[in-house]
Design a protein that fits this description.
Chain A: One of its GO terms (biological process) is mitochondrial translation. Chain A: This is Small ribosomal subunit protein mS35 mitochondrial conserved domain-containing protein. Chain A: It holds the Pfam family MRP-S28. Chain A: One of its GO terms (molecular function) is structural constituent of ribosome. The complex is a heterodimer of chains A (343) and B (208). Chain A is an alpha+beta fold. Chain A has 14 helices and 4 strands. Chain A has a 4-stranded antiparallel beta sheet with strand order 1-2-4-3. Chain A is elongated. In chain B, the strands form 3 sheets. In chain B, strands 6, 7, 8, 9 and 10 form a 5-stranded antiparallel beta sheet that branches. At the A-B interface, α7, α8, β1 and α10 of A face α2, β9, α3 and β10 of B. β1 of chain A pairs antiparallel with β10 of chain B, so a sheet runs across the interface.
């Protein structure tokens, strides 16, 4: 036995077989030592017939000595085990590790879907066996330490807007593919309400004209979308730079802004308009015809009736024609021209 | 599966203060100092903490606190796309439970309608124009909208969500960040710099 073990140098699974073979006798020693590098003195080597016989007996030996698969792990599992130890991380479905009688696949005719053993469909589909509710709770208790709380002062949207007027919107993309990068990820959208910026009337109108389509009148939000730079940080800086430039440029008054015509005006202004001239002329002529005391235009302008008329006309022109507007206009006109008789 | 590389580094910052313009640090630029193995796949490196529960966090040596103000996200919209609706259902259950456990308020969970892309190809490599084969690709969507998150919480939650993203599912995250007005927009500069403007206009005139 010692001599036999001397000629075997490697600890391979064949070792038990070789030891078993050794027990057969010196002739078998010759056969099994064909796999070892030891020198066998004084023998001619096995003949072809002997080699074939040795192979057949070897395969039968292999068949005899093959370790049979034991019972699946599912049978040894305790009912109250911690499932997190069976599937701690994402892993493919293993039918002998999951103690559930799952069937998946298209059923044969007048049959049931195939069982879980050797079921490729179950292996292909992503499983969430590692993300059971207790496992998720365990992960989250460990992660909770690294989270911060939202400041309780900012519980509503209005307060958020009041303290933090600018909103930056960015998009991240996660997907599998040849590349991790996504060119759409560099787009940055900057949103701000113009009421939060320190702008006077002229500056606001100029900014709106400069910006054009990017301003929404209903929500009073200016949206700047930048994607001309290759990096997100650069796009963000560019967006902030644009906002700064717009703000400062709108405060400037250029020489050519004096040439603003009535067509360029955003809203109707009653002073120095044909409506004002006509109304004042009419009133002066009425006074002159009735031969009452001469009233100057300034006094007429300051009087309440004319103010009322002004507000109704401005409302009509700027907001459009609504029932309320038209009724108020009618009342102001009747008061202006003293037409109480018509009411 | 998202390629998250070897180590992801997290900064946890104090509450956003007044005055200084908050800089959103890219968390991966930070030097790594601590390594904490949560489970085989997750490698977390944590920094900083919330300044009110300092004492509790001093016990956990892996958290360190920094003075950098935390970013604030008014809304975080997570849209997942996949070919299998049941996988998205399970993932939504996981994401919602994780959000609840971490104390994140969920605004809305909705399912945008699926999109089917169909195309027709010739069945044979040569001739037989009348015989074609049709394929389709179905994409199902699920959208999870969260509100009022701090930068640290968002980083933690998103990393957890993304590491456990199943195979064959893609994700788009839309972040709406809140920021203060920068100092250079508070007031127009034209009042303060008359001399600069005059010299500039003078240079223009002489140039032309």
């Amino acid at each position: 036995m010692a001599a036999a073990s001397g000629c075997l140098f490697c600890a391979r699974p064949m070792l038990p077989r070789l030891c078993a073979g050794l027990a057969a006798g010196p002739r078998s020693l010759l056969r099994v030592s064909a796999y070892s590098t030891a020198l066998v003195v004084g023998s001619a080597g096995p003949s072809p017939g002997q080699v074939a016989a040795s192979r057949r007996s070897r395969t039968s030996q292999i068949a005899r000595n093959r370790r049979l698969p034991g019972a699946p792990r599912t049978e040894k599992m305790a009912v109250d085990q911690y499932w997190g130890n069976v599937y701690p991380t994402a892993a493919a479905f293993n039918p002998s590790s999951v103690p559930l009688p799952i069937r998946m696949g298209y059923p044969v005719k007048r049959g049931v879907p195939p069982p879980k053993e050797g079921n490729l469909e179950l292996i292909k589909i992503p499983n969430f066996l590692h993300l059971t509710p207790p496992a998720i709770k365990k992960h989250c208790t460990a992660l909770k330490d690294f989270c911060t709380e939202w400041p309780t002062v900012l519980d509503s949207d209005e307060k958020c807007e009041q303290h933090f007027p600018i909103e930056i919107e960015t998009v991240d993309y996660v997907s599998a593919g040849p590349s991790v990068r996504n060119p759409k990820a560099r787009v940055v959208t900057l949103r701000v309400k113009l009421s939060k910026l320190n702008l006077d009337d002229h500056a606001k109108k100029k900014l709106i004209k400069l910006v054009g389509e990017r301003y929404c009148k209903d929500t009073d939000i200016l949206t700047i979308t930048t994607d001309r730079c290759p990096l997100r940080r650069q796009n963000y800086d560019y967006g902030v730079y644009l906002l700064t430039v717009l703000y400062h440029e709108s405060w400037k008054t250029e020489m050519w802004e004096n040439e603003k015509t009535e067509a360029d005006m955003e809203e109707y202004i009653w002073d120095n308009s044909p409506s004002q001239k006509n109304a004042l002329d009419t009133l002066v002529r009425i006074r002159a015809a009735e031969k009452t005391t001469e009233v100057t235009k300034e006094e007429l302008l300051a009087s309440e009736i004319v103010e009322n008329y002004k507000t109704t006309v401005v409302a009509l022109k700027n907001e459009g024609e609504t029932e309320n507007n038209i009724l108020q206009y009618k009342e102001s006109v009747t008061k202006l021209l003293n037409l109480q008789a018509l009411q | 599966m998202a390629a998250w590389g070897g180590v992801s580094r997290l900064w946890r910052r104090g509450c956003q203060g007044l005055g200084t313009f908050p800089v959103n640090y890219s968390s991966r630029d930070m030097p790594k100092q601590y390594r904490f193995l949560l489970n085989k796949d997750l490698l977390w490196v944590q920094f900083s903490g919330f300044h009110t529960d300092l004492h509790h966090h001093k016990d956990n040596s892996l958290i360190s606190i920094s003075d950098e103000p935390d970013t604030l996200y008014r809304k975080l919209s997570v849209l997942v796309k996949g070919h299998d609706k049941t996988v998205l259902d399970s993932y939504e259950y996981f994401a919602v439970l994780a959000a609840k456990e971490l104390g994140i308020s969920i605004e809305k969970i909705h399912e945008p309608p699926r999109k089917i892309e169909r195309f027709t190809l010739l069945k044979s490599i040569h001739i037989f124009k009348k015989h074609r084969v049709q394929y389709e690709m179905r994409t199902h969507y699920r959208c999870l909208e969260l509100k009022h998150l701090t930068g640290s919480t968002a980083d933690v939650y998103l990393e957890y969500i993304q590491r456990n993203l199943p195979e064959g599912v893609a994700m788009e995250i839309k972040k709406t960040k809140l920021e203060k007005l920068p100092e250079h927009i508070q007031k127009p500069i034209w009042d303060k710099l008359p001399s600069v403007e005059e010299t500039a206009t003078g240079a223009l005139e002489t140039g032309h």
